[in-house]
Design a protein that fits this description.
Layout lengths: L27 H5 L13 E7 L5 H12 L4 E4 L7 E8 L6 H4 L4 E9 L1 E3 L8 E4 L8 H10 L2 E5 L8 E2 L2 E2 H6 L9 E17 L5 E11 L5 H11 L4 E11 L2 E2 L6 H11 L5 E2 H8 L2 E3 L2 H8 L13 E4 L5 E10 L2 E9 L4
Parallel strand pairs: 3-12, 15-16
Antiparallel strand pairs: 1-3, 1-14, 2-3, 4-11, 4-12, 5-6, 7-10, 8-9, 10-11, 12-13, 16-17, 17-18
Helix pairs in contact: 2-7
EC number: 5.4.99.25
Keywords: Isomerase, tRNA processing
Function: Responsible for synthesis of pseudouridine from uracil-55 in the psi GC loop of transfer RNAs.
Length: 347
């Protein structure tokens, strides 16, 4: 998925739009590679909602969280490219088993699209392909029409530097090796695509461009970089992404996220890295079935219980709020029942 000056204070989400400026943060690699003695496990199973900084890969963030949590059983749900900032959901311990469900949730972003210049990567990290400029500007009515055309259920060709595999190799690896990469279009959903503000600007080569701040809500697998590219092409001027901040993943908004510095300070102060407990994480991810003690015990043994009456995967919570199992209704021997598809609190 979509990927520098560090983000400013989080009180104003609009100010978080990343402005690409190579070297302004210094070298983040030196920071994340700092050698420290390994910690013993100091985090309960649960989720961390991280505000990823610019210049870090999602794997870098996982590495830092592993050190803070004192365990290698840490993973993330939904990659953010290095240039992007914002919500990265990280699982610790048994919570890693929930990440498969979190990664499929819809996602919200604030972004800046530069109209008038197209690049090899559809973002500001690539080389300029064409600098057509916007001349006297872009007609607001035409901009609105093309934004509307890219809203709803659409077909999208992913960026060539995506992580999609082509004959066993990542597309970005093939592209960086100089190979021609052709990716098939695929269905995605753009639930919302709103223009917040637009302003004339000048590119580094002196070409007149238009920077457009947008807010989008998209299905999993949608590339915001590709939306920027396609909007520019539809307007006949080209376009690419210059800023990206993820403001929500499913039920996890940005205001619940903590920076890596905040996580480290809290872990150092308390001796335990605070995570979002499994039960609370389940309530933010799934519909919930409140279980009786008998049902919780039965599910802990892997037994089936009365149906939930809900579609899809449902979280079964014990009376004390513990996440016991994930359930799905199914028919067994002509009888509708709920089966545990994942038991997290075995009896």
């Amino acid at each position: 998925m979509p990927r520098g000056e560090g983000p400013p204070g989080r009180s104003d989400p609009a100010r978080h739009l990343l402005r690409v400026a190579v070297g302004e943060r210094g070298d983040p690699v030196a920071d994340r590679g700092t050698a420290r003695p390994p910690r013993r496990p100091t985090a309960p199973d649960g989720l961390l909602i991280v505000d990823k900084p610019a210049g870090w890969t999602s794997h870098d963030v996982v590495g830092r969280c592993r050190r803070l949590a004192g365990t290698r059983k840490v993973g993330h749900a939904g990659t953010l490219d290095p240039m992007a900032t914002g919500v990265l959901v990280v699982g610790v311990g048994r919570a890693t088993k929930l990440l498969t469900y979190v990664v499929g949730a819809d996602k919200a972003y604030r972004a800046t699209i530069r109209l008038g210049v197209s690049t090899t990567t559809d973002d500001a990290e690539g080389e300029t392909l064409e600098a057509r400029g916007v001349g006297e500007g872009v007609d607001p009515a035409a901009l609105g029409r093309q934004v509307a055309a890219l809203t709803g259920d659409i077909r999208q060709v992913p960026s060539t530097v995506s992580a999609i595999k082509v004959d066993g190799r990542r597309a970005y690896a093939r592209a960086r090796a100089g190979e021609e990469v052709e990716l098939a279009d695929r269905p995605v959903t753009v639930s919302s695509f709103e223009v917040l503000e637009s302003r004339p600007a000048t590119a580094d080569d002196g070409v007149a461009v238009l920077d457009v701040d947008v807010e989008v809500v998209v299905s999993s697998g949608t590339y915001v970089r590709a939306l920027a590219r396609d909007l520019g092409e539809a307007l006949g001027v080209g376009g690419h992404l210059t800023a990206l901040r993820r403001t929500r993943v499913g039920g996890y908004p940005l205001d619940r996220a903590r920076t890596l510095e905040e996580l480290e300070a809290q872990a150092d102060a308390d001796g335990v890295l605070a995570t979002l407990p499994l039960g609370d994480a389940a309530r933010s991810t799934f519909p919930v079935r409140e279980l009786t003690d008998a049902e919780a015990r039965a599910l802990g043994y892997g037994q089936w219980v009365t149906p939930t009456g809900m579609r899809g995967t449902v979280a079964g919570l014990a009376p004390d709020g513990t996440l016991v199992a994930l359930l799905e209704d199914t028919t067994r021997r002509g009888e509708r029942r709920a089966k545990p598809v994942l038991v997290l609190a075995p009896a």
